[in-house]
Amino acid sequence: MNKSLNKLFAIGSKETRLIIGLMSGTSLDGLDIALCKIAGSGSDTSIQLVAFETIGYEDSFKEEIRSVFSKQTVSLEKVCVLNGWVANIHGNMILQCLDKWKISAQEIDLVASHGQTIYHAPKFLHPNDKFGNATLQIGDGDHLAVTTGIITISDFRQKHIAAGGEGAPLAVYGDYFIFSKKGENRIMLNIGGIANFTFLPDDLDAKKIFSTDTGPGNTLMDAYAQTYFHQSFDKNSAIALSGKPNEKFLAELTAHPFFTTGFPKTTGPELFNLDYLASAIERAGMYGISHQDVMATINRFSAVTIAEAMKRSFLGLTDFVVYTSGGGMHNPFLMQQIQELLPGYQFYTTDSLDINPDAKEAILFAVLANECVAGGETLIGNGSSDIPSVSMGKISFPS
C-alpha cells in the first residue's frame, strides 16, 4: 500500500488527532488558525482548542484577492496563479504559528483548509438554467500539503454541492456534533460577512436540524466602511451610532426576493454589495443621505433580516438559547438590535460553551476534516439535498 495511505489509515485509527483548522472569510481580515485536539467522531466528537491565532493579511494580499473576488469578469490567468500563491502563503503562516507554539509539523496529523472564497453562485443567483449551484475557493490543498509537510483536507464545499446542496452553510455539521444538548433548543448564530444560523433541537433528533443563511452580516458594513471611511470595519459601531436608520431606505433594502423565498438558502457578496446599496438608494430617492445614516441603516438591515429569518423559521416560538460567534458579535449596535427584535430569546457567545467564538469557524473545519478520515455515516437534517449527509473534503499528501 502507498505509504501515504498507510499514514492516513493510522491517523484515522488514532484515539485523538491534532488537526489545524483554517478559515479565511470574505472580510479578508486575516487567516484564523486553530490547533485542535479531537477525539471520536460524529455525535461522539469531543474537541479541545489547544492554540489559536489570527494572522492579519498585508494590504498587498488583500488587493490581489479583491482583484478577483465576487466579480463576474476577471483575469483567468490571475485566478490560476493565485490558487497556489494563496496556499503557499497560508502554509507559511501555519509554519509561523507552529514555530511560535513550539510544536513541530510532524506532530500535526492534518490541516483542514477552507480556502479563500472568490465566488459563490447558488442557482437562484445565476441566470443560466443549464447550470446548477456552484462555488469556488482558491488556495490549493496540494500546495498547502507540500509547503507544510502535513496531510491536508481542503475544498469541502464541492462535495456538498455534488450531493445536491448549495455549498453552504457548512457550520451545521460541526454545530450538531459539538454543541447539541438534550433539554435545550439551541440556535448557533454566526455573523460573518454573511449571517447564518443552525437550529439544534432539544431532543437531539438529527432530522429536525435546520441551517440557513439569512442575508448580510458584516459584508455591506465592512465594504461601506472601507470605501467611505478608509477603515476595515465600523469599530464599536461608532459610525452607525453617529447616524440614524432611514426607514424608506431600509424598506428598499429588504425588498429583494431573497428575503421571501423559503429556507434553507445561501447567498454572498455577489448579491449584497455596494451596487445593491446604490440601487436601493436610487429606488428610495435618498440621494442626499449621509454616510453615517447609510451605515446606521445597513446595520439595522442586517439585524432585521437575521431576526426575521429566525422568527419565520420557528413560527413565533421563543424557547431558544442563542450562541453567537463571528465578527458581527463584536458590533454592539448590531447585537443590541437583534436582541431587541427577539424578546424572550436568551443570548450568549460560544465562550460559554468553552469554544472561542472567534475561532469557531476554523474549529468547525477541523471537525469536518476529522469526519473525513475518522467519521462514519451521520444522518443529519431531513436527509434531502437541503443538508446532504456526506463526508466532505479532498485529501492532499505532502509527497
Features:
399 residues, alpha/beta, Nucleotidyltransferase, domain 5, 2 domains, 7-stranded mixed sheet, 5-stranded mixed sheet, 13 helices
List the helices and strands and how they pair.
Layout: H1 3-13, E1 16-24, E2 30-39, E3 46-56, H2 59-66, H3 76-101, E4 110-121, E5 134-138, H4 141-148, E6 152-154, H5 157-162, H6 171-179, E7 186-191, E8 194-200, E9 210-216, H7 219-228, H8 238-241, H9 247-253, H10 274-284, H11 291-313, E10 321-325, H12 332-341, E11 346-349, H13 360-374, E12 394-396
Parallel strand pairs: 1-4, 4-6, 7-10, 10-11
Antiparallel strand pairs: 1-2, 2-3, 4-5, 6-12, 7-8, 8-9
Helix pairs in contact: 3-4, 6-13, 7-11, 9-10, 9-11, 11-12
Please give a structural write-up.
The chain folds into 2 domains: 3-168 and 359-377 and 391-396, Nucleotidyltransferase, domain 5 (2-Layer Sandwich); 171-353, ATPase, nucleotide binding domain (Nucleotidyltransferase, domain 5, 2-Layer Sandwich), CATH 3.30.420. The two termini are 15 Å apart. Strands 1, 2, 3, 4, 5, 6 and 12 form a 7-stranded mixed beta sheet that branches. The chain has a 5-stranded mixed beta sheet with strand order 9-8-7-10-11, sandwiched between helices. It has 399 residues and is α/β, with parallel strands linked by helices. The model has no long low-confidence stretch (mean pLDDT 93). 37% of the residues lie in helices and 21% in strands. The protein is built from 13 helices and 12 strands. It is globular, with a radius of gyration of 21 Å. Helix 6 packs across helix 13 and helix 11 (291-313) runs parallel beside helix 12.
